[in-house]
Design a protein that fits this description.
single chain; Rossmann fold; alpha/beta; 119 residues; 5-stranded parallel sheet
């Protein structure tokens, strides 16, 4: 069973993604902040990480950098409200595989894209 780690501080959105991904047969864990996300990534060993950038305590950029600096090649999908080209470029430079803007994609479409990546 493929595993997904959701790193999102919007608990309603996180729960929506979690329920939708579980209904598609994925094992899902969620973290509402970057500090817990790094530890969960190490123990849960997901096949894919959904990563928000604007979070309390530790930013998504720092989570991304930490995961990549550990040599972890997990597939990382950034899903953020940050939409400047500089934000996208920075995330890609730090090792994001995909970058989606929350404002441009409804949750159902986003979940379908994530499921397609994992299939």
């Amino acid at each position: 069973m493929k595993k997904v780690l959701i790193v999102e501080d919007n608990l309603d959105l996180s729960e929506m993604y979690k329920i939708a991904l579980e209904s598609k047969g994925f094992e899902v864990m969620a973290s509402e902040n970057g500090m817990n996300a790094v530890a969960l990534n190490d123990t849960f060993k997901p096949d894919l990480v959904i990563l928000d950038l604007m979070m309390p305590f530790v930013s998504g950029y720092d989570v991304l950098k930490t995961i990549r600096n550990k040599g972890n090649d997990v597939y990382i999908v950034v899903n953020s409200n940050l939409s400047q080209e500089s934000d996208i470029a920075k995330a890609k430079e730090l090792g994001a595989n995909e970058y989606y803007k929350k404002s441009e994609m409804d949750p159902k479409t986003f979940v379908n894209k994530v499921a397609a990546i994992l299939s």
